Amino acid sequence: xxxxxxxxxxxxxxxxxxxxxxxxxxxxxxxxxxxxxxxxxxxxxxxxxxxxxxxxxxxxxxxxxxxxxxxxxxxxxxxxxxxxxxxxxxxxxxxxxxxxxxxxxxxxxxxxxxxxxxxxxxxxxxxxxxxxxxxxxxxxxxxxxxxxxxxxxxxxxxxxxxxxxxxxxxxxxxxxxxxxxxxxxxxxxxxxxxxxxxxxxxxxxxxxxxxxxxxxxxxxxxxxxxxxxxxxxxxxxxxxxxxxxxxxxxxxxxxxxxxxxxxxxxxxxxxxxxxxxxxxxxxxxxxxxxxxxxxxxxxxxxxxxxxxxxxxxxxxxxxxxxxxxxxxxxxxxxxxxxxxxxxxxxxxxxxxxxxxxxxxxxxxxxxxxxxxxxxxxxxxxxxxxxxxxxxxxxxxxxxxxxxxxxxxxxxxxxxxxxxxxxxxx
Length: 425
Fold this sequence. Notes:
Blueprint: H1 2-21, H2 23-30, H3 34-43, H4 48-58, H5 64-78, H6 80-84, H7 88-102, H8 105-114, H9 123-151, H10 153-174, H11 205-208, H12 215-246, H13 250-280, H14 285-306, H15 313-325, H16 330-340, H17 347-358, H18 361-375, H19 379-404, H20 407-413
Helix pairs in contact: 1-8, 1-9, 1-10, 1-12, 3-18, 4-7, 4-17, 5-7, 5-8, 5-10, 8-17, 9-10, 9-13, 9-16, 12-13, 12-14, 12-16, 12-17, 12-18, 12-19, 13-14, 13-15, 14-15, 14-16, 14-19, 18-19
């Protein structure tokens, strides 16, 4: 089940990355300016956060098996309008529908994943989902670049549509609910497993919304907002930036993107288990998970600010790796700290809202970047302004996460027991 959700994350981020990789041929064919291309890239996120919230609440009452299946089907069908008749209108339509289908995926997938692991053993599964995202980019960059260069940009979209349909078919056969969760009526989520004690249901509407009053929840949301600014910026504009401003070839761009994608795999895979070991040894979640979240985002913002002022290729690649790769480590930690202050029967909604807020830069960053590039004295000045602005924003969000996240404090204040288990002796 964890491997299926890992594969889901790979496909999810392949869908996000393909537009940036195909930006030049699509823009040339459809006559897109930087600003219009930025709007197209942002349109993917027009319904992304809304659907994440709505489907997150649905996932509280509907089996995650069926929710994830429906989302995967939507992904595959969303590619068809653009492939049938390429135009600016169908490009917008395809990306909007695709975003609506992919918006809830992270929250629902993590909710489904947590049903298979007790609270004290979720660090590695959380990281596994996030590194699936990095692996998606790592694999997609060279493969989709090959398809785009050799067979046209449409071939890359066909490949992703087919992969999504294949995953949906496999999931229909093997997808199941795990034992560490409850149905809406309070019964066990799986008929084959005995009931496993989890956090009790919230006693009131106040308790149900308690996580929204939590500084920990908001700290993770703001930190993730900053991290996702780099994700959205990198997906939409990094390939074009490297080609136009630094003379990278198509192959060099693919290798640069694969490099930072590799970092998005390594960082969560090492940082999350490391933070979990610290927590099991008695280090507070605030220090082991909260401070680590914020520090990763702060480092990414700093590197992004420095990137436009460096010409040495090796240093550029190092800054790209930090700017676009380190933020990935903040996401699994934010899922864990959110679960610490959320009752299990409200976790789907809590994670859905978290992901909705964290991914808002997907709607904002490409559009803002496109406008800044077009309004600069030239493209070079515009890119400097866009990258420095994004870097400062990201660093500020990292600082907020460091200061705000404190699960132990917020758990004590909660009106219901959160989804957390005591540290084993």
